[in-house]
Amino acid sequence: MAVFVLSFIPLNKHSQGTPSCAKPCQHRSGPYSRVIVRQRRQLMTPRPSAPQCFPPANSVPFSRTATVWKTLCPFWGEEYQVHLPPTFHSVAFYVMDEDALSRDDVIGKVCLTRDALAAHPKGFSGWAHLTKVDPDEEVQGEIHLRLEVVPGTRARRLRCSVLEARDLAPKDRNGTSDPFVRVRYNGRTQETSIVKKSCYPRWNETFEFELEEGAAEALCVEAWDWDLVSRNDFLGKVVVNVQRLWAAQREEGWFRLQPDQSKSRREEGHVGSLQLEVRLRDETVLPSGCYQPLVQLLCREVKLGTQSPGQLISLIEETTSTEYRQEVATTLLKLFLGQGLAKDFLDLLFQLELSRTSEANTLFRSNSLASKSMESFLKVAGMRYLHGVLGPIIDSVFEEKKYVELDPSKVEVKDVGCSGLHRPQTEAEVLEQSAQTLRAHLGALLSALSRSVRSCPAVVRATFRQLFRRVRERFPSAQDENVPFIAVTSFLCLRFISPAILAPKLFHLRERHADARTSRTLLLLAKAVQNVGNMDTPASRAKEAWMEPLQPMVRQGVAQLKDFITKLVDIQEKDELDLQRALSLQAPPVKEGPLFIHRTKSKGPLMSSSFKKLHFSLTTEALSFSKTPSSKKSTLIKLANIRAAEKVEEKSFGSSHVMQVIYTDDAGRLQTAYLQCKCVNELNQWLSALRKVCINNTGLLGSYHPGVFRGDKWSCCHQRDKTDLGCDKTRSWVTLQEWNDPLDHDLEAQLIYRHLLGVEAALREKHRQLSVGPEAGRGPTGPGEAPEDPLAELLQVLGDLQEAHRSSPADSPPSEPSRVLELQT
What PANTHER family does this protein's entry cite (predicted)? Predict the structure, then answer.
């Protein structure tokens, strides 16, 4: 299985004057960015906002940044990691202008081909000019052709059968197209009939042309969208080499529609620039058995802890540069989570960190493997807990939109009072009101945290307890009595809650970034939380004296926080086994949230009003629903019964945010559940989660209908047989990632192997230094010999895996990926 991991960060869009294809910023409009992946066989793009220049696709999820309002120089700073199918051709970044009342406009795009990405092994970083979008180059879909050379009365004839097409770009405002095909050869042109309102048309029409000596060598098949009033829209074309066809006599198959590149390229750099950091990695994942020696060796070292003579985890940290430490920490954590050893792994890192720390005030302040692993652990295990505690406070800040400022040098005096009686608000009044607002938010947060002991996940409580105990053993003196509390708050407050307050969108607390006023409120609230987390030390108070109005609340918060931590880590030794059993029995949701389910009607059209809002929960066992998050859940679909999860055409329900889950009922009959999401990001997240948990299901469908069966025919391809095979192929791969995704043990092991292979030279040098006596410089033992130390065994395992990769036939990726998973967001 070949996996391509694409990491990219859309940082900034720099405008060089008002873009010629973008409107000036108006009320409730702003730019955002979309990333699209093009395949060799099929083009993958999102649903269009402007059909005339940005065609959508019904194929796979894509990534979309938040909208930055009212600016020509937006900053996003959002980071993504997506897995691409082996057949991908290029990656395109579109900068769009979002409008509240009309369709979004395309400002420009940056397109990076696969070869361009491969030319930068360490990643591409810098500014890239946006180019204007040519509608004749924005095509998608495939066409099914049968081409033959047949004998004629006087000369041979070229026969072209136009059978069907799929996933064509919807050019009309109703979310479809009216496609027809134009076939041109040797000066003659023939056309098919027009199929109204379909992106999956079927023609089954045949055309013939005479083949003459010296005639044109190319047959051109063009797909067009017919329009009654305006000019027809180009949908793509296929150019066939007639000489090659003459030799083969017959060809049939699906041909990817190509753009029209006959026109001269427009000059670039007139619509702004986009700053990007993009890195592409090619990973070939071997069968599970190949990674067992590596996984078993690392697990054995974690179980031994500091008693291990080699301490491989310590060596991995020592040989990992700061640049890759977060990536390695996340991968190791996921690997040990899959083995049920996450708590032991973190405990080992705690001990290693404490053994080399002499000053209590520097504990866990560096970007060590322990700090990075704990950050990843809290995001994996504590994200739902964070949403429950922090979510209402963040929502309140966003909804109030109050002006808050404590720094006198930044205060903006404004008018207050009723109409006709305005008076300037004094600086003291602004500062006092701001302090009151922040005290209210901080108090609400601390109260919510104090009440959350029981709702904190058991594995998080156990890990914090172990951390608290290790730090207290290392610094037992009375003058260091606050050090164990600060160790816990350094992760809980400084590396988890405060970052979430500063950037709620990155922690999935909000769908959009905050505006400037809300951002300032969040920043001041995060500073206050940091002061509480630092236990109100003199050093933290001295940094910004203008935070003094919050000191009474901060001191009260320190007492609340210490009481909270005391209760949080109060787990008796006898409860450890019960805790571990509870952890093993827990089946946390992979994805949950409100969705609208279509209520089946026997007659009448399917309308958006027939959707009912329910709370859905997806686990590794079933897709369930309930009226509210806290009410009793009812199973809608057993996970093993799911056969496909796909998007639904916009025209089917008048919405582009509807998905369908195809499953079998108890009698083995295929059924379909239609679920509507509130936005395209949520739709892609649900599709991604459903495909991940069903990746190993038996009986997955190879095709499906992207429309609905309405009346007596399918709305997508107009076929009248309800049991007819689908007109489009299903997608088994996914591109989006959530922190609570199911783990892919083989992929995590492959990523660890790839990292260790990159630092193999440093590991060998370390082994040479550690070797003593007659064995010095010997290195790893040979095949079949018993390893004499863990590092030697690790080097031997790396050698075996390297040989397995060299002999693996996976060097030539398949046309369809068997499994693709994303690492992180």
Answer: RAS GTPASE-ACTIVATING PROTEIN 4-RELATED, RAS GTPASE-ACTIVATING PROTEINS
